[in-house]
Prior knowledge:
Helices cover 0% and strands 54% of the residues. By secondary structure, it is mainly beta.
Amino acid sequence: MTKTIGHTCWAIAEGHIPGRSNGPEPQMTSHETACILNAGDRTARVRITLYFANREPVGPYEVEVPARRTRHLRFNDLENPAPVPRDTDYASVIEADVPIVVQHSRLDSRQSELALLSTMAFPVS
């Protein structure tokens, strides 16, 4: 059974990619991830805009999530229109043309005693 769930706009108010990591790459590279679920019947066209404390927003970064699939998108891997800066606080707004669900996670491996956090993004619409 395919069910339409989610929203078309999400916000993650907290973002920060540590500038260094501890452990084997790429598994233990410090990172931020948007886990995007598209449970619908159409491919989701997703646009991400980043907001900063002391400069203009950057974006949109554009990705697709096929129908009835999930995509775990590392912010570290976003390059176009600009790489996401390290050691810089930011927030993100994630918009899609179909309803999606967004969860946020971070791996901070600056120390060997790493920290992992995960939280749901805020549904805007």
